[in-house]
């Protein structure tokens, strides 16, 4: 360690809020160059390399072939798929000296489909799985959490190519299992949840989530039947509204009452008997011109429910949504704080109603003028919608869509995702094959990603204590920390530690040798901070008895080891730690959730 390029820190920047961010900096694994952009120092690079080696092994095991595609892509590729126009400021774009437009790749669906289009000609070349471990860039507006949300990152992205949907359906469970294997071999506990396909498109997606309080995503879980979904798409069993005949609509004076909570209190009714209006403006998918257009969206949900913007965006085909201004709201005939779809100009607003509202009789809704509401508003009689669908957010306590039991909310970090893409990108890139009859057919694609840095950070989030990191043996920068407690009066300690180091290296053990001229407390603290799984302490007192102390970082268990048995004892300890990881590798069943 006296020659190791690293520096441990006692203090970290105030904006390092998550445990992994603090420990990455304190242990000298990374250095922050700019917001969301990090250098990897030798210790961090060793961990990252081990994670990526596991990825390669699991991809190779299911027939993957490694390639390497460029980070810089010509605009034409992304224009052909339409994503050049669909993606906003997250994509970094530039022009070269000749005025040609390029981007820094966020992902490689277009480029991979274009590559395969150049090579694959026949059904005999299928199925095919290509993967790479490559740098990507996303101009993230708010980088946070150290390596959890960054701008420049390394990703293992894989792409499958099949003859038809049946081929993709057959392969999907294999990549699903391979991902569980990767995460568990890295010592990370994950669960798979159904997720939104987002900008990737496709018919199905799963995210692999590491549960942790600092997670950015909210998950809805059913402990009774195993239903799991990201809140973005989670469905739930909505309560059945009371059966009642529509009553005559009547206007009521509600002075200064411009919130659902205030309205319910003022009228003495539950919020479930009100209709909530949400005014948004959608940036819609472009037509052939490539120019975005804005569309006013009037969403209506029951007063006791919250709008799910992901569901709404998917329902109307929006790129993104923003709140409407008061001027925009009044332009369609509605009133901020007192809005309802009754009487609005439907030629100027896309009205989207939650399916529960459409089934709920005699709700209280705004009268579209200040200080007034309507009682007994009924869908279809009093107003119509362009779209009726589920647009509300599931929450803790709601009934499971599958079994009706209460859902539980948890936080998680997305460490990987898999998508059934279909033919969107192959058709755009002209990636076809000839079938047995000589007919050209589009390749059916899947896309599968894992971020190396985010996975590394998530391992720390699940494996640390008050003293530092606790690396699983499979991804630790070194397997053994050899600590020499020498002084100027104990040259025999240096001689013995040197001898042990050479013997362990000769036996194939990865050893970080702390030969620094530091106090014992500093060395022990740094060993705990760095999280090396096994610590060997060589001191004068132990050597006098022919012993070395072996300590497991995972649980603090210590035991003396005879000098002559040191190498086999260390090998046995390493094997035991590996066996703990291997015991977590179990067969997974891909559970397709209902209600999608």
UniProtKB/TrEMBL annotation:
It holds the Pfam family HGTP_anticodon. It is an enzyme of class 6 (ligase). It catalyses: tRNA(Pro) + L-proline + ATP = L-prolyl-tRNA(Pro) + AMP + diphosphate. One of its GO terms (biological process) is prolyl-tRNA aminoacylation. One of its GO terms (molecular function) is aminoacyl-tRNA deacylase activity. PROSITE patterns: AA_TRNA_LIGASE_II. It is found in: Cytoplasm. It comes from the Bacteria. Keywords: Aminoacyl-tRNA synthetase, ATP-binding, Cytoplasm, Ligase, Nucleotide-binding, Protein biosynthesis. Residues 36-472 form the Aminoacyl-transfer RNA synthetases class-II family profile domain. GO terms for cellular component: cytosol. The keyword Protein biosynthesis applies. Its EC number is 6.1.1.15. Consists of three domains: the N-terminal catalytic domain, the editing domain and the C-terminal anticodon-binding domain. Catalyzes the attachment of proline to tRNA(Pro) in a two-step reaction: proline is first activated by ATP to form Pro-AMP and then transferred to the acceptor end of tRNA(Pro). As ProRS can inadvertently accommodate and process non-cognate amino acids such as alanine and cysteine, to avoid such errors it has two additional distinct editing activities against alanine. One activity is designated as 'pretransfer' editing and involves the tRNA(Pro)-independent hydrolysis of activated Ala-AMP. HAMAP family: Pro_tRNA_synth_type1. Belongs to the class-II aminoacyl-tRNA synthetase family. ProS type 1 subfamily. Homodimer. This is Proline--tRNA ligase. The lineage of its organism: Bacteria, Bacillati, Chloroflexota, Caldilineae, Caldilineales. The gene is proS.
């Amino acid at each position: 360690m006296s020659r190791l390029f690293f520096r441990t820190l006692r203090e970290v920047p105030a904006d390092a809020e998550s445990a992994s961010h603090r420990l990455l900096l304190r242990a000298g694994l990374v250095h922050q160059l700019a917001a969301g952009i990090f250098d990897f120092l030798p210790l961090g690079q060793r961990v990252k390399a081990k994670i990526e080696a596991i990825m390669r092994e699991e991809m190779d095991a299911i027939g993957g072939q490694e390639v390497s595609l460029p980070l810089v892509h010509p605009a034409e590729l992304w224009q052909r798929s339409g994503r050049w126009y669909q993606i906003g400021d997250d994509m970094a774009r530039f022009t070269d000296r000749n005025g040609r437009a390029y981007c820094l790749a966020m992902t490689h669906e277009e480029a991979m489909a274009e590559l395969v289009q150049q090579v694959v000609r026949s059904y005999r070349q299928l199925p095919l799985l290509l993967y790479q471990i490559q740098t990507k860039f996303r101009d993230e507006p708010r980088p946070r959490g150290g390596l959890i949300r960054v701008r420049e990152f390394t990703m293992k992205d894989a792409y499958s190519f099949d003859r038809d949907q049946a081929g993709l359906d057959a392969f999907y469970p294999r990549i699903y299992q391979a991902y569980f294997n990767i995460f568990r071999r890295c010592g990370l506990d994950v669960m798979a949840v159904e997720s939104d396909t987002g900008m990737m498109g496709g018919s199905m997606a799963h995210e692999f989530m590491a549960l942790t309080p600092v997670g950015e995503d909210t998950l809805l879980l059913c402990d009774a039947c195993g239903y799991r979904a990201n809140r973005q798409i989670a469905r739930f069993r909505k309560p059945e509204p009371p059966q009642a005949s529509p009553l005559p609509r009547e206007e009521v004076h509600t002075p200064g009452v411009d919130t659902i909570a205030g309205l319910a209190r003022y009228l003495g009714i539950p919020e479930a008997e009100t209709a909530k209006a949400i005014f948004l403006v959608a940036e819609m998918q472009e037509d052939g011109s490539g120019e975005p257009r804005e569309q006013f969206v009037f969403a209506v949900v029951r007063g006791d429910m919250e709008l799910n913007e992901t569901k709404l965006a998917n329902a109307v085909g929006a790129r993104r949504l923003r709140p409407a201004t008061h001027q925009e709201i009044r332009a369609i005939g509605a009133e901020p704080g007192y809005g309802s779809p009754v009487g609005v100009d439907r030629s100027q607003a896309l009205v989207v109603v939650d399916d529960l509202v459409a089934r709920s009789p005699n709700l209280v809704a705004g009268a579209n003028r200040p200080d007034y509401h309507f009682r007994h508003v009924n869908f279809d009689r009093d107003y119509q919608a362009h779209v009726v669908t589920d647009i509300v957010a599931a929450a803790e306590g709601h009934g499971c869509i599958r079994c009706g039991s209460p859902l539980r909310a948890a936080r998680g970090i997305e460490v990987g995702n898999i998508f059934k893409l279909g033919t969107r990108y192959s058709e755009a890139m002209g990636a076809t094959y000839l079938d047995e009859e000589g007919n050209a057919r589009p390749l059916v694609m899947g896309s599968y990603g894992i971020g190396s840095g985010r996975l590394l950070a998530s391992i720390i989030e699940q494996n640390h204590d008050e003293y530092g990191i606790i690396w699983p043996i499979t991804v630790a920068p070194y397997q053994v920390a050899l600590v020499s407690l020498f002084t100027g009066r104990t040259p025999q300690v240096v001689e013995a530690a040197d001898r042990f180091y050479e013997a362990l290296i000769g036996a194939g053990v990865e050893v970080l040798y702390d030969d620094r001229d530091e106090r014992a407390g500093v060395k022990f603290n740094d060993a705990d901070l760095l999280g090396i799984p096994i610590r060997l302490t060589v001191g004068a007192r132990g050597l006098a008895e022919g012993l070395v102390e072996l300590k497991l970082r995972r649980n603090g268990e210590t035991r003396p080891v005879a000098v002559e048995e040191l190498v086999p004892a260390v090998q046995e300890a390493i094997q035991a730690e590996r066996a703990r990881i291997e015991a977590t590798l179990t067969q997974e069943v891909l559970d397709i959730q209902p209600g999608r």
